[in-house]
Amino acid sequence: MTLLRNRPARVDLGPTAALSRRGLLAGGLGLAGAVILAGCGDGDEPAGSASQAPTEREVRTDKGPVTVPGKASKVVTADYYGAFAVVDLGLVPVGVSGGGYDATGPSYAPKLASVPLIGDWTEPDVEKIAAAGPDLIIRTIDTPDALYQQLSQIAPTVVISFQQLLLPEVATRIGEVLGRTAEAEQLLETYRTRTAEVKRKHAAVLGKYTFTFVQQASDTTFWVMGPKWTDVTVLLDSGVQLAEPAKSQAEPTAEVSMEKIGDLDSAGVLLVPAGPDGKTLDPANEALVGKPLWKQLGAVKANRVFPIVYGAASLGTGLELVTRMDTVLTELSSAS
User: Fold this and answer.
1) Which Pfam families does the protein's record reference (predicted)?
2) Most exposed residue of 27, 104, 178, 203, measured as fewest CB within 10 angstroms of its CB?
3) Which helix (H) or strand (E) holds 157?
């Protein structure tokens, strides 16, 4: 498995696909999603079922002001990530990009698994989008002008790049575009409440340990996730303190030789990607954790290595990480 370049905070996306992140949520880690989406739940509107508002609105986008429906009802998400942000706000798209939505966990799979696919992870099929008959197209990654012009001929097209925003900002902006500001505010309030709750509940253990989130990159290298990596921003919001060298890392990820695993010894706790059950190690990282140098790390010897869900693509999926960290911190506290 390659590193999931989901949406590092305010930096460019990397080269790999998003399927791996969503697959990690297949094991029932939708508790947080179930909580935050309680106001949407089974009442989520399939795109196309809601009555379109009689007025149009002008919204701000990366491509300048765009006139959109008063309340869009037939939305196509023309890259992988936007589908989750739209579902978070109670609307099911009429077309989505990529695939593997049947393995995205109970908060998303029932809504997205049967939605028609209109292209791959990042490159949409213009003809398939047109066939879906959208009243709005959303792109949540940087978009070339030529593609933007093609999409704009089909329906109003909004580009709000996740690559330039933090997850709370994404929820707010998508809420504005969809005419669902109340839903976005509710989601944001839930995120603030949950992260504050984790900070308060686990203040002692959070003050005791520093953390590093690492992932295997290849047979000879691993990645260290820094403060600008999307998942790490969620961890920081939850009160996690990073260990060096991750704490001072300027880039979202740093690829490091396996020979330098010893650099991780300053971390009191190591976080690694979880597999499909969300609780055990992703097998793609077995080479990393099997290295003799890894086994000599203090956190490893003390059994302070925890798999976590990763690849947050929306505020709702970020909340799934918050819920997993609540469990991790509870286990860590019990063992301390």
Assistant:
1) Peripla_BP_2
2) 203
3) strand 157-159
pLDDT, tens only, 28-82: 233 233 333 333 334 465 554 444 454 899 999 999 999 999 989 999 999 998 9
65, with CB counted inside 10 A (0-12, 13-18, 19+), is: exposed
How many CB atoms within 10 Å of residue 215?
A: 23
The residue whose two tokens read 């509870």 is 330
CA distance 316 to 217: 26
Q: How far apart are CA 210 and CA 260, in angstroms?
A: 19
CA end-to-end span of the chain? 33
Residue type, 323: T
**Rounded CA separation 184/303 (Å):** 39
Choose among 199, 197, 178, 235: nearest CA to 40.
178
Match 């999603």 to its residue by tokens.
33
**Least confident range of 103-117, 147-161, 286-300:** 103-117
Tokens of 134: 């959208």
| Cβ proximity of 252 and 311 under 8 Å | no
Domains of the chain with CATH codes: 19-191 (3.40.50.1980), 195-335 (3.40.50.1980)
- Tokens (6 digits) for 186: 């509710």
What pLDDT sits at residue 35? 30
Instruction: Return the half-sphere exposure (C-beta side, CA atoms, 13 A cut-off) of residue 50.
Output: 25
C-alpha to C-alpha distance for 22 and 121, rounded to whole angstroms: 12
Q: Give the separation between CA 267 and CA 255, rounded to whole angstroms.
A: 17
Query: Which of 182, 187, 87, 188 is closest to 140 using CA atoms?
Result: 87
Query: What distance lies between CA 281 and its chain's CA centroid?
Result: 19
String of DSSP letters for 250-313: SSSEEEEEGGGGGGGGG-SEEEEEB-TTSSSB-GGGHHHHTSHHHHTSHHHHTT-EEEE-----
pLDDT at 198 over 80: yes
